[in-house]
Amino acid sequence: MAFDKREFRNALGCFPTGVAVITAEGIAAPLGITVNSFSSVSLDPPLVLWCLDKKSDRFDAFTRARHYVINILGTQHSEISSRLAKQGQHRLDGIEMVPTSVGLPALADAIAVFECESHAVHDAGDHVILVGRVVNFFRQEAGAPLVFFRGKYGALAEA
Questions:
Q1: Which letter does DSSP use for residue 55 in this model?
Q2: Which CATH number is associated with domain 23-141?
Q3: pTM of the entire predicted model
C-alpha cells in the first residue's frame, strides 16, 4: 500500500492547534508568517519552538533571524492569519503593531506575545524546527484563541 500524503495531512488535521504569526526582520521591512506548529519546550531556560517549511519564500529570513516575535492569535485574527499563510504575502501593512524589546513588531491585540532570540535550527524532513529562547513576553487577560481544525478556523470558548 502506498503512503497517501494527502490522507496523512487530513489525519494530522484532526488534532486542533492554536494559530500564531511570527514576525522577523525582512530585507526592506519586518515580515510575518502564519504557523500552527508553536509549542513550549522548556521553562528553564525558557524555550519555545515552531516549524517552517523549507519551500517557504520566507525561509531564509526566518532561519537567519537573530530575533523573532511569536504572536498567539485570537478569534479576531482569522483574516490576518489567512493573508500571512500565503506565499508572497508577508508584509505587515495595515496590521496594528506595537514595538517590542527585540526591535521587531508584535500584533497590538495578540492574546500572547513571546519575544525570542534564535537558539537553534534543526533539520526535520521537509521542514526545520526553530527553537527560540524567550527574552520577554506579555499576554492579554482575556481573549478566545483562534484554532485550526480539519483545515478550517474555529474558536474555543474562553474559560
A1: T
A2: 2.30.110.10
A3: 0.94
